[in-house]
Design brief:
With 339 residues, this protein is mainly α. Among the domains are: 1-116, Tetratricopeptide repeat domain (Serine Threonine Protein Phosphatase 5, Tetratricopeptide repeat, Alpha Horseshoe); 132-214, no CATH class. Helices cover 81% and strands 0% of the residues. The chain is built from 17 helices and no strands. The protein has helices spanning 4-16, 20-33, 40-54, 57-69, 77-94, 97-114, 118-134, 138-154, 158-175, 181-194, 198-214, 218-234, 238-254, 258-275, 281-295, 299-316, 319-335. The protein is globular, with a radius of gyration of 21 Å. TPR repeats lie at residues 242-275.
Length: 339
Amino acid sequence: MNSMHERLREVRDALDKGMYGEALARCERLAESGHAPDLTAKIGALKLDAFAGLGRWREMVALGSTLIAGFVPNRESESLGRIHGLTGFAYLRLGELRLAERHLRASIHIYTWDLEDLPAALRQQRRLALLYLGMGLLRQSCSEMESAIEISDRNSCTSESGILRVNLAVAMIKVGCLEKVSKCLDEAEKFLKSASRTKWLLLSTLVRANYFRITGHPMQALEILMPALQITREQHYSREEAITLEYIGDCYLAKKEYKRGLEHYEEALKIAEATAPEGDIIPEVCHRMGETLTRLGDPNAAILLCERGLRVARALGDRYEECATHRVYALAHREAGNS
C-alpha cells in the first residue's frame, strides 16, 4: 500500500493535470482512510483546489471556513495561507468581494512575511488583481498584474508567468488595448505549455476567442470555441462551460443569428444560476440576453433581465458590467416606447 505522502503526491499530480474530479475522489478516500491529525489541513487544502477546478464555490467556502476555524495558532502556516487564498478565491467567484479581499490579504501576509514563499504569494496577488478586475478597477488590476509578471518572470515562476498574462489580456480587452492582446496570449501559451497547465491553456483559448470576436472575426472564434465547449463538459468545468456558451452566443449575435445566440445565452445563464447566482457571469449574460431579446422584438423581457443584471453588478461593485448593462437597458426602454 502506498504511503500517505505518496498518495498526497498523486492528488497533486491529478490537480496539475487538470483532473479535478479524480483529485477530489482521491481526497475523499484519503479523508475516510484514517490519517494523522496534522494531515487534515493538507488534505483539506487539496480538496479545496479540486473544488475550485470544478467550480464548486459554496462547498469551498463551507470547507475553508471549517478548516480555518480548526487551526492551532502558530502551526500549519503553509496550509493556512493556502486555505485563506482558496477561500478568498471562492468568495470572489460568489461575488462576496469584501470577504474575498480579507482572505486574500491574510494569505498574502502569511506567504510574504511568515513563510517567505514567493510563488505562493504571487498566486494570491494574481487573485487580488482578479478581484480588482471584477470591481471594474481596471487600471489598478493591470498594475497588480504587471508587477506580478515582472516578479514572476525574474524568478522563473513559469505557471504564474503564463496565467498572469492570460488575465492581463482580459484586462487589456476591457480597457481597449487590443493591439497588445495577441502577443500577450502568445507569450502566455508558451509558458503554460512548458508547465503543462491544461486548464489555464483552455482559459487562454477562451480569451483569444473573445479577442477574435471583438476584432470582427466571429467564425475564427467559433472554430476554437466549439472544441473548448466539449472539453469543459468532459472535464466538468462548470464556470468555463458557462463562459464558453456565452462567447458562442456573442459570435452568433455578431453574425445576426439572434435565436441561436439566445439559446446559448440561456444555457449559460442556467449554469451560472446553479453555481454562482450572485457571481460575475450573471450580469454579463443578462445584458447580452437583453440585447438579443430587444433585437428579437421583446424589449420588455430585456428590461427585466437588465434590471437583474444591474442589481448583481452593483452588489459586486463591477462598474464595467454596470455600464455595459445600462447601455442595453436604455436601448430596451427606447424600443419599448418608454420615455
